[in-house]
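Fold it.
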Amino acid sequence: MKPALQPVVATLADVYTPPRPPSDPFQHVLWDNIGYLIDDQRRRRLFDAFASEVGLDPRRIAEADETSLMAIAVQGGMRPEVRVQRWRTIVALIAEHAQGDLDAALRALPLAKARALLKRFPTIADPAADKILLFAGMAPLPALESNGVRVLARLGLFREAGSYAASYRAAIAVLTLDGEPGFAWLTQAFLVLREHGKTLCKRGEPLCGPCPLSGACPKATVEAL
């Protein structure tokens, strides 16, 4: 018998207190693009360094010299020059499509158009757009990232599809049908499911022994071997 979603989230919320991404949409886009395959602690350090040394005003970033940007980008993993170009692209898009204020532009649009605008930005596809709208308090709709999707699949709450996009939609349907409405629960569900997937329910070698959900997980005994 598969576990119920809301008790799963409640159990994980008693275990994890993960950090939250920025609520401001521009800062959230920058947060997602600040490094390549880095953990949350390193992401926070890089983001804070960027805020201190360059600033979080799109106009200041547009005017920043290449040396200053590259000095931060090299700390964020491979291909720093690509990251610098993405930062330039982000602020150019904000100037062109949001008159310098992404938050205000998104709030003035219907939800579908706000989502479409976010997807113009580097690395922002449907899951990240949903996440940004949720954490900005603009749309109380469910969002997940790959770790959270994997957790729900291993718990048997949906059947994985042939593509990640289809699996994502199936996982979102679980949150829509079985979760609680409203920003507080949906943001908590996103954060704790993601953290559990990163910490214990890992992709390659899940740590089923200490998992607080192992008693209800149909994959626990198999994947713990």
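Residues 184 and 216 are 25 Å apart (CA to CA).
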